[in-house]
Each structure stands twice: as C-alpha cells, then as structure tokens.
Amino acid sequence: MYLQQSAKHGLEGRCRALRVFRSRDTHHPDLLPALWVVFRLLIDDEGQNAAQCKVQLDSGWPREDTTNTLVIAVLWLATNEEAISCEGRVVQDRIIQSVAPFVFVDYKYPITRDSGSNYHSSLFSNDEPSSSWTNCLELADPAISLLATVVYFARQETRRPVLPSFLPKTRAEANFSGRSGPTLEDLIQFSDVWTIRFRSTPAFSNGWTILIADHPWKTLTEAFRRPKGFTLSYREGGVEVLDTSGVLRALYEKYRPDIDPASREGVDSAAVPVRDILLIGQNDEDRAAEWGEHSCIGRANMDTGLITFQRTSVQSPGAPIVFHGYLPFGQNLVGRFHDANSLESSSTPNSWSGAFSLCNA
Predict the structure, then answer these.
(1) Of 281, 282, 255, whose CA–CA distance to 267 is shortest?
(2) Which of 68, 152, 169, 211 has the most CB within a 10 Å radius?
C-alpha cells in the first residue's frame, strides 16, 4: 500500500510540475517545487528516460511499426476527393514529407517479403490478434510502403505540372505537323483523368486483399509523373515461355473449370487450380503515339497477389523496366519499378528504382 500511495503521490507531483512548465509563467508560485521534481527525475532515472526516448528513433528513419502502419492505413481508407480538397497545401506538404521515406527508400521499406516465385504467402512476423465482435482474428500488418505510396500520390496528383507551351495542342495538330510525342491534350488528360482511384469510388470492391509487402535497392523521386500504361490481351490458346538459353520451359494453358481433374492423364488434381497468370500486353496506337510504343510480359501470382511484369521499348530496346506491385483495393496497381540491370547486381552504375501507382482507366 505504501508503494501504491508513493507512486500516486509522485505521479501527481510530476503532473503539477508539467502544468507549471506549460504555463510558461516564470513567476509561478510552484516553480521551485516543479524544478525540484525535474531535478530528481534527471538524477534518479538511471538513464531510463533517455533510453525510452531513443527507443522510438531508428537512426533518423521513421519506424515501420504497427502504430505507424495503421495510422497511414486509416488515413488512406478515409481519403477521398473532398477530404484532400479540405486539407490545404500546408497539411498536404506535411503528409507528403512524412510518408516519402516509406515510398522511395525501398531498400529499407520493401513492398513484399516474397521472392516472387513463392506459392504461399509469407506474412509479416508481427501478426497481432484483433477482435471483431465475437471473433478473434490473427491479422498481419499491411505493407506500410504500399499504403504510403497511395497516400503520397493522392496528394501529389493535386498539383498539375507546368505544361510546356511549345507542344502541339491536339493529336490532329501533331499529326498534321509530323510531330511525335505527347500533346498538351495528352498531358492534361494524364494529369486530370488518369489519377489515383480512391476507396470511396463507387462500384468496386472495398476489400483489402494484400497483407504482405520485393525490393530493389536504390531510389529516385524524379519522374514520378512519367506515364506508364499498357493494354492486356486475352489469349484463347496456350502460351509457351522459354528463357534466353532455351533451358527453362513453362507452358501456360487456358484454365477450364468444367474439365474434371481426374480425366487429365498425368495431372495431379492438387495442381489444377489456377496458380499463376501470364500477362502479355502492349500500349495501344494512341498511347504509342503519345509516349512511345512498349510491350510487356509478366505474371500474376494468385497465391501471394504479387504482380510482376517487364516493359520493353519497341523503338529503342535497351534495358527493360521491371515492375513489382499489388492491387490493394482492385483499382490501383501499386508498387516499385526499376531497370532490369538491378536484378543482376545492385552495384550496376545505371541501376535505379522508383515508386508507381497505375489506376484502372
């Protein structure tokens, strides 16, 4: 009982001292007792106060803990056009600065813990029990970098870039003058229409399908407004994929749910469900005229949700660009992209990477 009373008395004294200092009154009648309280705290804590303060520091980096993750998650889930318009430039700048490390420092904050070849989700180790009504569920932290990316772009996209006046106004004008590349009309469409899709947008799923968060190693914040896009094509037949040396071979077949697995000779019934989807795409004629012709090939892992594809320029086939990402709410493909050289070695001089968000246009 003595210890409880002593602790209660000590806590009340510290609260009184805190009120004195917050009053900023240098003539406060309780200033001297308040100073004695602080003095005793500093000489009696055996370094614990400093240790408790430093535990929240990570060499200057924001912490990827559950608290920060859920704060950013709630911020995104509550974000819509109206909320952003009410924030103002100052608030937006503070949010952008706060989440930017999670977006661009990908060697420290990866979007996934999977290698891309796994067929089972490897959730984060800090799973937490969460009760919902009478049910108790084990929930893994969402990937903070995915959430931070959509929060970041949602605010950056409210700021239209300066449009160069020397560009042709329309595609017809560009074709008439024999000029290639984007027009003012294209830039305006990209800036105002091809923007991030919010969770509050009607007629799409509100579920969160990604609980995990591949990482390149080096980042750039420039060119985050460079357009990226493609059109997916559906192939009725199968597609055979070979590596450059022709050693590794994979055959992608069309999935037919009406065929009984037992009727397939030599096919294990456990291997029949769709595990992997091959993606083949290219940008259409109009987009090719605007931003250059590109083709892409990739895969969507149905077990982990990871989507990986490689984009190659048709006109100037140099180092392809590799994209890794997820569809957190079905409307935005969010992740990281980098040149293919960084897959070979992270010390490649021209290696770079950045963050992207592709909307469902």
Answers:
(1) 255
(2) 152
Give the containing element (helix H, strand E) for 297. Answer: strand 294-301
Cβ-Cβ contacts under 8 Å for 302 (sequence gap 6 or more) = 274, 275, 276, 277
| 59: region left, alpha or beta (phi > 0 left; psi from -120 to 50 alpha) | left
In sequence order, the 6+-apart residues with CB closer than 8 A to the CB of 230 are 281, 282, 283, 294, 296, 311
Condensed to tens digits (0 to 9), the pLDDT of residues 95-152 reads 999 999 999 888 888 887 655 444 444 444 444 555 455 666 666 677 889 889 989 9
Q: Largest alpha-carbon pair distance within the chain? A: 92
* CA distance linking residue 64 with residue 76, whole number of Å: 16
Q: Buried b vs exposed e over 84-105: b needs ≥16 C-beta within 10 Å? A: beeeeeeebeebbebbbbbbbb
| Nearest to 20, CA basis, from 39, 8, 38 | 38
| Structure tokens belonging to residue 273 | 């469900």
Rounded distance between C-alpha atoms, residue 282 and residue 299, angstroms = 14
**Whole-angstrom distance, CA of residue 3 vs CA of residue 123:** 44
